[in-house]
Amino acid sequence: MQMQILTTTRAHFLLSFFLNYLLFSSPFIQGFQPLPAPTSGGDHYFESPLSPPALPPVPADGGGYGYAPTSPAVIGQWHEGSPGAPAPIPENGVGGDRDESTASAPAMDNGGVRWCAVRDQLEECQFFVGVIDQLTGYTWKCVQREKAQDCMESIKKGEADLVNLEAGLAYNAFINHSMKAIANEMYYDHSKTYKAVAVVNRRACENNEKITLMDFKGHKSCHGGYSTAAGWNYPINYIKNLINNEELSDREIATSFFSSVCAPSEVEGFDICNACSKENETCPEKGLYSGHSGAFRCLVEELGDIAFVKGDTVLLYSMEGPHSQLWSSKSVRDFMYLCPQGGCREINGYPGDCSFGAVPANVIMAHNSMPNKKREHILETLTNSSLVDALYAPNNVSIIHLFSPSTQGLAMIEKVTRPYLGKSASISQSILRLNAPETRVASYEADNGSDESSSSSYICCSQVMTMLSLLMLPLILGITPK
Description:
About 35% of the residues lie in helices and about 15% in strands. The protein has about 475 residues and is of the alpha+beta class. This is Transferrin-like domain-containing protein.
């Protein structure tokens, strides 16, 4: 009898053990799904304990660009030990289950912070770091490079620490240069996104009320930069789906759809400038048509018939705009948004669904191996309200190149890089597949780990263990087939 009780007790114990194992190991139990593998080692989550001040509402789509007076943004601070804050990571910046210890050219703390300025950003950068030096006493310096790609290379080599990149280029830095997003720009009403839009001359809309993007096939196009999210990736991905062709590269899609293209590149050798250069493919020096303002200039000067830019570009750089230039010879009323689904809409800063979608705000990128203390200093400095006050004080240098003109503050990234980039990263990856479906995507998965493959492996292993456990259970309980 005693032996039977012991056997029963043992059976109940083992049964309880295996049931618990099945409960917590199975990926199919709701609430216990495996977390995706980190896509950028060393990224952190930051808590924002401060509530931002109430500001006038913007449309529900969140893509507006109101022109309230620029004011300092109240930005939360992350601190170790706060609820939900991440555990400290090693000094080499390695985090998650990705081994960054062999990452090339770690960013060493040499007693200062080096901001990489692209071309004409240098003067603004010098003003910016000068303000920081006065406020903190910590040395910040500017390193000038000709292209954003050069800045990525310099950061990878340890020659610079930070660069501000838009979402498309940020994805490039993330997958090819072991970099991560640590802070982002904030726009009106603390918005962290903007809309990717197409802009055309008003007369084109007035001549055809049912005008669509297909009506611009065979016309000339202006882009806010090759590989940029709003200027290239979003519209090219849309055109790819429109013509239903997965065989062409992104450049082939653009050059076969449009008669000529103006798309300067921040990556050497990828310029397409036959629409805005007398030398056919070579883009003009000094970045005349670079960036979203350059794409709008291309449209204003009638080098192109359609421009792919940020939703507020025309408002900022038209004749009446706060950042009008010598070439800004036309009014905002001379242009309209071209809706991807057809028709046009007035340019008022709120394109809504008359866009290719929302793009995450520009990000400050750093190397994965940046030491913790240095990163914390940088984040504390960039999100300091005193810095925002000083930068936007009257009569100061107008910062429209180092940061987006509509920037009202900086905030610490609250997600790891890949989730922060979201839809933009997915579209960028889709474009990479078009260009080199085997090598580039394989390189991405090797360098950063594929969430999908990691998850699939986990599920596969869990299924095998679950099956083995079920097969062993009758043997443990002493149940044998008759």
